[in-house]
Structures are given as structure tokens and as C-alpha cells.
Sequence to fold (225 residues):
Amino acid sequence: DAKTTQPPSMDCAEGRAANLPCNHSTISGNEYVYWYRQIHSQGPQYIIHGLKNNETNEMASLIITEDRKSSTLILPHATLRDTAVYYCIVSGGGADGLTFGKGTHLIIQP
Amino acid sequence: GAVVSQHPSWVICKSGTSVKIECRSLDFQATTMFWYRQFPKQSLMLMATSNEGSKATYEQGVEKDKFLINHASLTLSTLTVTSAHPEDSSFYICSARAQGTGELFFGEGSRLTVL
Fold:
């Protein structure tokens, strides 16, 4: 699986949009971009995934650049409960497990 | 949504004893389950891949005789930490890949403390 690079931490004010960047310059054509988050002492929670097109669901939006070398996860109206470590993972989705990097610790400030 | 349940959610044991952690897919069948370990302030590290009815595949550096994995059915995988020592204290997380859709779901984790 391709490697991803994320900032170690970010702050965001409550109620504002949180934009979390991820670089995956070595992504291959059949690999998806997945985003998970982990709230302290819990298992990872799936957020969203995409291949080429931008995606949106009830939790977030995923913007993937045209060359697919980077992406941004957008939490449109961050709340205190969105404080967590966010992992950007690139995977072909086959039989292998996901490889987690260090992620971004997002802290939502009141 | 699909649920993966781990039991126990936390356990404290004495050094030298063995501890079993269960991972169940509650409303779907999982041909493949994965076991991760997470130390404080670190990311999840994949330990092994477990396929129903066959031997688990361990990642480099993970002792297969110490971390016994059994995947006897399509809804249950177990991880047994044998002769546990304080350095085995960690957060153990399983994930299950749904048969058919291939979606991946994570359990809530099991925190092991070895005294």
C-alpha cells in the first residue's frame, strides 16, 4: 500500500470547518483513499473513502486532487466530539489489512 | 451498521498467565479478520491476518507462539496472549472484512494490563 503523510496535529474552532490534508504521492491507479478516526481508547471509526471523484456523506466530504496525489477530509461544522486522531490510508482494498500511519490529532477548541 | 464486538473490553492479569480476547462479527460473516496492537500515543500496528479455517499469517516480528490466533467460524476469531508479561500490556483491536461486500469494520478494542 502507498504511504501517506499527514500533519501530526491541527486545531480548529468549534463550529468551523476542519480541513485535514493528506499527501499520497505514490498512490497507484487501483488504490482507494480511506479516512478513519480514533477517539481516545476506542476502535477506529470509518469516515469515508474514495477513488477519483469527490465524495460526501453524513459525516464528511472527501476532496481528491485530479492527479490523486493528495486529498483533504472536510468536517463541515466541527464539534468538540470530533476531537480525535484522523488517519488517511491508501489501500487497494484486497485481502490485506489496512496500514495505519501516525495520523493527525485534530483538537476542536471551544 | 455492522458491528464487531470484542470481549473483554479490558482485562488485568498476572505475569505468566494467558489471556484470551474474542472478536465477533455480530450481523455479518467475516472470512478475514485482522488483529492490531496499539501502544500508548502510537498508531495501530497490524499483528496478524486470520482467515476462517486456516492458519493465521503473522507480520514480521510478531511471535506466532506467543500470540495464538484461532478463526474457527465466520463470526469469531480469538487472540490468546500466552505467558503474558508487562511489555504485552497494550490495546488490542480486531477488524473484520465482510464476506461479499468486502467492507472492513473495527471492534472497540480490548485493553490488556499485565502486572
